[in-house]
Amino acid sequence: MKEIYNGYDLQTEWDDEALGFGFSVHDKNGAEVSRSVDPYFYEENALTAARAAADALPEQG
Q1: What is the pLDDT of residue 61?
Q2: Does residue 34 lie in a domain region?
Q3: Where does the pLDDT of residue 58 fall: very low under 50, low under 70, confident under 90, or very high at 90 and above?
Q4: Can you tell me the distance from the alpha carbon of 47 to that of 35, in angstroms, rounded to the nearest whole number?
Q5: Does residue 38 lie in a domain region?
Q6: Residue 61: inside a domain
Q7: 7-36 pLDDT, tens per residue?
Q8: Which of 44, 43, 26, 27 is nearest to 35 (CA)?
Q9: 17 lies in which domain range?
Q10: Total domains, the chain
Q11: Which own/partner contact pairs does 21-30 have at CB distance under 8 Å and 24+ positions apart?
């Protein structure tokens, strides 16, 4: 799943090795600025954690 949130590109995807969903947060230039460490059982939980990670970063325009 992809979502634009506060100027950041949030992406969630299934990780076969971790047996759960993970997330990554990218800035407006496409550089990864945050990534999940632990897997999430539900994709919605990974997306919620990605939003929280983006909230902790400076807002982009």
Answers
A1: 61
A2: yes
A3: confident
A4: 11
A5: yes
A6: no
A7: 999 999 999 999 999 999 999 999 999 999
A8: 26
A9: 2-55
A10: 1
A11: 21/45, 21/46, 22/46, 23/47, 23/49, 23/50, 23/53, 24/50, 25/50, 25/53, 25/54, 25/57, 27/60, 28/60, 28/61
